[in-house]
Amino acid sequence: MLKYIAKRFGYSILTLWVLITVTFFLMHLLPGDPFVGDKPLSDSVKAAIYARYGLDQPVYIQYLRYMQNVLHGDLGSSLIYSGQSVTNMISAAFPYSADLALRSLTFAIPTGMLIGIMAALHRGGPWDTTALVITALGVSIPSFVLASILQYYLGVVFSSWTLANWGFRAFPISGWGTPQQAILPCFILGFSNLAEIIRMTRSSLLEVSGQDYIRTAKAKGLSERKIVWRHILRNSLCPIITILGPLIASCLTGSFIIESIFNIPGVGKFMIMGVETSDYMVTAGSTIFYGVLIVGANFIVDMLYMVIDPNIRLYDDKEA
Amino acid sequence: MADDTSKKPLLVVKDLQVSFDTASGEVQAVRGVSFHVSPGETLALVGESGSGKSVTAQTIMRLNPEPPARIKAGSVMLDGVEVTKADDKTMQDLRGKTVGMVFQDPMTAMNPTMRVGRQIDEVVLEHNKIANSEAWERAVRIIDAVRIPNAADRARQYPSQFSGGMRQRGVIGISIANVPKLLIADEPTTALDVTIQAQIIDLLLSIQKEERMAMIFITHDLGVTAQVAHRIAVMYAGRIVEQGDAHTIYHHPVHPYTKGLLKSVPKPGQDRSVDLYAIEGAPPNLIDPPKGCAFSPRCEKCMRICKELQPPATDLGHGHVCSCWLLDPRAKAVADAVGAGAGTSSEEGGAR
């Protein structure tokens, strides 16, 4: 068991190292630099700025220095907003992203699993139809389209009506802070995840329902309910959790479209800004931050596997 | 039948017809099957894949998902219960208690995330009002009874820690946990290697003898059948083409399909230069089964009537029943005319 944990942990570290390295070198492969811009700089000024940010050093020195800093939790300072450290920018922005993500997941995970389970247990019934519709919509409509539609009909048309009649806007379309401001972005961010969770839950349950050991359970004379609770659910959890880990991570980080549309000051907004302005440090920093979240989520999933599937524990015992 | 008066059958299946409604049409998997099994008796259902053996067996427990499966006609009387008309509750009471089933593939028949002991005590608890601890003790005793060493330790392990043969013992443990009156073994040795096969069959037979269970043993392996069966029913394309006691079927088979099956079993000392006998052709499509005898396209002795009409079941005495037009008195004339005697080859199967 310890060996399994150590192995997973080792893989996580390795993944992060590859990620940091690739990010670093990709950034340096990009044409231009943050100081090629509106005003041409004189050579001496340019040299001074390069020296200040260490850009005059050979690439491998820059790389080593960057690695060293990252290991100490220092993601460098923004090249555009001078003096602002990327670590500080991210830690200021992350709570907004986390809040948005957690709220949308609190909506998406239980709802998705419930609909998925009901759809699988009553194939062809109303739950299954619901699941099908949500899945189709969630997969085919990009979040920015859904966001625009809902912003217009709920955020503008309907909210103007509530403002006129009840004296408040039902669904504000921008900013973050009040519960009402959270409804639309959380729903939209949750919606595509909801579709994914429903799809995965349903197919995983159906797959397990067709297994031989479910027939064995039926041959024992167990009721439908006991078969579902004791035999189907636990065995179908593994694939569901597999997607939940990265899903949570991507919800925490991948909400940059929603953050941009709804003007929420989260990490995603910084990342986009960093890319647009060639701010190496911000882009690399937020990429690494995302990477840590995703790798961390996968590590937690691996640990959860161990709890759910005894065979993983056993496999390792045999090996050790 | 001859022994009806001496032993009251536990299971009587009469003219059972089961179909599966699929996208490409109605698959008539079982097309009128009749047989009976008495306590202490083993009936072997023999036939190739797709002949309807497993569907028949699973219908006895109503294990086929319905839909797509549908019982079209017929009756299954199991221990006084009409299974084809029973509701869910009645079936749940029967399953695991009156009738147990051993499945083909031990690698997949057990829940991978549940301790083996728990999988056995689950079926004990389901049908007995006893304490959890007592059920667990019983599970351990059952594991011991199916000859798994260190039963108490093994009970706490998961199926992945068991070898194939041991898993099948575990599955047998589940099926016999409540000492059912009928045990259905659906190709229980097909997925195991030969040395283990003998042990598993030996185990099944000794349990059956001890508890005087009725057993239905499904197999496509006539070699295995010889060791276990009192009576044999040979299935082809959803029908029983011939049934009778094991000796009769082995030594005096009548149906050309039965003869073909027996001929295609390799025998020790057989001349290697001679090709193994194989029945030409393939079983018919059961979405659109032939109008006449299903075996007629592959039959060496096929007559014109065989392609037109289903052969009736002919009782040859002592429970030996065969459905073949060759048994019709008028077939003699045809055979004579063609020059190939229908009855002359009855010794072929006896050669082994």
CATH architecture of the largest domain in chain B: 3-Layer(aba) Sandwich
Can you write the helix and strand succession of chain A as a string? Answer: HHHHHHHHHHHHH
Based on CA atoms alone, the radius of gyration of chain B comes out at: 21 Å
Give the rounded overall mean pLDDT of chain B: 83
Biggest sheet record of chain B: 8 strands, mixed
* Average pLDDT, all residues of chain A: 82
- Helix proportion of residues of chain A, in percent? over 70%
The helix content of chain B, as a percent range, equals: 25-40%
**What is the H/E order of chain B?**
EEEHEEHEHHHHEHEHEEHHEEH
Mind telling me the C-alpha Rg of chain A?
24 Å
Low-pLDDT runs of 5+ residues of chain B are 1-6, 340-352
Tally the helices of chain A. Answer: 13
Q: Could you name the CATH topology of chain A?
A: MetI-like fold
Please report the distance between the alpha carbons of the first and last residues of chain A.
9 Å
Please provide a written account of the structure:
- The complex is a heterodimer of chains A (320) and B (352).
- By secondary structure, chain A is mainly alpha-helical.
- Helices cover 78% and strands 0% of the residues of chain A.
- Chain A has 13 helices and no strands.
- The longest helix of chain A is centred in the first third of the chain and has 36 residues, at 86-121.
- With 352 residues, chain B is α/β, with parallel strands linked by helices.
- Chain B has 2 domains: 2-229, Rossmann fold, CATH 3.40.50; 239-266 and 278-351, no CATH class.
- Chain B is built from 11 helices and 12 strands.
- Chain B has helices spanning 53-60, 88-94, 116-127, 132-145, 151-155, 164-176, 194-211, 222-228, 246-251, 256-263, 329-338, and strands at 11-22, 25-37, 42-46, 69-78, 81-82, 99-102, 182-186, 214-219, 231-236, 239-245, 313-315, 321-323.
- In chain B, the strands form 2 sheets. Chain B has an 8-stranded mixed sheet with strand order 6-7-8-3-9-10-12-11, sandwiched between helices.
- The longest helix of chain B is centred in the middle third of the chain and has 18 residues, at 194-211.
- The radius of gyration of chain B is 21 Å and the shape is globular.
- The model of chain B is unreliable at 1-6 and 340-352 (pLDDT under 50).
- Chain A binds chain B through residues 211-213, 215-224, 226, 230-231, 234-235, 308-311, 314-315, and chain B through 61, 63, 88, 91-97, 100-101, 103, 105, 108-114, 119, 122-123, 126-127, 158, 160-161, 171, 174-175.
